[in-house]
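[step 3/7] fold_predict: job queued, chain A
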Amino acid sequence: MKYLLILILFVDLLVYSQASTKNQQKKYLDNLRKSEQLLKRTSNNVRLSVKNLQLLSNQINTRELLLFSIEKEIEFYIKKIALYETDIIFSERKIEKLKKEYRKLLYYAYRNRNMQQKIIFILSASNFNQAYIRLRYFQQFSEHLKLQAQAIHNLQNDVSQKIVDLKVLKDEKTTFLQKKTDEIFVLEEEKARKVSSFENLKKKRNEIIADIERKRKQNQHLLRTVVKAVETTKSTETTLTVAQKNWTEKFELSKGKLSWPVHGGVVLSSFGEHKHPVLKKVMVRNDGIDIGAKVGALIVSIFDGKVVSILTIPGANKAVIINHGLYFSVYSNVKVLFVKKGQLLARNEKIGTVASEDGGQLGMLNFQIWKNTEKQNPKIWLKRK
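[step 4/7] structure written:
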């Protein structure tokens, strides 16, 4: 009984773990699908080739996570198969034990099968109570025989079903092993594509440096404009309006739960300072995150707020700044605008559409979150993908 309880608890834990792993795999596959769609939109110019490299890096990282998840799934099947095999052995031993006991009972019943002897045995009792006890003994013995036979039958059926289930588990394990092999093959192909792309881009060093400088100037222009807009509408805890206080409280409670500003996007550049994807000795800084998406993809407000600034950035289209009390969200590289300055917005309300990078088919949105003049990492505020 103790063994059975441990087995049930362990199987429940395995099932829970498998469900979690399957959800992770679904997210990884969705990310890979989005990346693959965006890769088809990149062209041969330097800026988009760098984005292509970033997309490939994202693909490789996600596929490695997917492979790890598949390995966990295979491990789940190995453990569950071992449990089933152990349980079958345990059940078969129990059946053998029950059969042995049953044979003894049958032998005893056979030796005492004579009805006349049973009646004489009952009637030879010294009193009525003893006669009744002897009668009940024969009745209970007969019932016990039936129960023993039924227990053996039930256990045999249970073992037969477990053998069928075990075969299914082994087949599923084989499927996942093949899936792992396929994913490893694709991963190696992607790594080869990344190496090829990297080597080609290294030959365009001067163009890349020029592109980094152009991007740096755009970022500085955006930074100055954002700081100016924030300073203009900057609030303190004591100067917030009732609406702004409400926005601030709800915004802070939504940390890690905010909607993404663009649907179907892939993060290509993370927050903060990091190495350039090609020129490893060159450090680049991002005050937000770059989200790759198809050109024309809808941009939405991550939270309730008010449009406090709309500006034009040379070479980077439009930028929209929305106030959420003590917090601000910034959407840069907007093509078509659906909002105007001073407009109140609800969560998920349309702001505009994503513009392309250098007229190509790949769109790019730079998204930032500020707490007054303090930059925030958007990924810790947005829902986990």
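[step 5/7] annotate
The first helix runs from residue 2 to 39.
The chain has a mean pLDDT of 81.
exit 0
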